[in-house]
Amino acid sequence: MAVTSRTIVYKQPAEKLNLGIDFTNGLQTGEIISNPTVSGDIAGLSITNVAVSGNIVSFVTASGVHGYDYRIEATVDSDSGEILKADAKLYVRER
């Protein structure tokens, strides 16, 4: 699931989700992104397999603490020399 900046996603602590943050709105036509990192307030949350696919930074989230609201921030370099950041919220709730 690709999300845009400021999107809220819910998951359960035992779930493992493939997520992505879409940078399309911050890019010029034909601009290419690289060197993705995903960070933020992620204590207790596992983030792996960070990669770029087109304009999307994809990653896998697992674990997390019930009741915790995580802010996840993706950072990329663009081929025009810019450093771009976008974030999303991940709410962990046992249902």
What is this structure's SSE topology?
Layout: E1 2-3, E2 8-11, E3 16-22, E4 33-41, E5 45-53, E6 56-63, E7 69-78, E8 83-92
Parallel strand pairs: 1-3, 2-8
Antiparallel strand pairs: 3-6, 4-7, 5-6, 7-8
Number of helices: 0
The parts where pLDDT drops under 50 for at least 5 residues are none
* CATH H-level superfamily title: Immunoglobulins
**How is the quaternary structure best described?**
single chain
What's the CATH class, please? Mainly Beta
Q: What's the pLDDT, averaged over the residues?
A: 92
Computed structural class: mainly beta
Strand order of the largest sheet: 1-3-6-5
Strand-residue proportion: over 45%
| Strand elements, count | 8
Rounded to the nearest angstrom, the radius of gyration is: 13 Å
Q: In the residues, how many domains can be counted?
A: 1
Tell me, briefly, the overall form.
Answer: elongated
Succession of helices and strands: EEEEEEEE
Task: Please bin the fraction of helical residues.
Answer: under 10%
- The name of the CATH architecture is Sandwich
Biggest sheet statistics: 4 strands, mixed
Terminus-to-terminus distance: 20 Å
CATH topology: Immunoglobulin-like
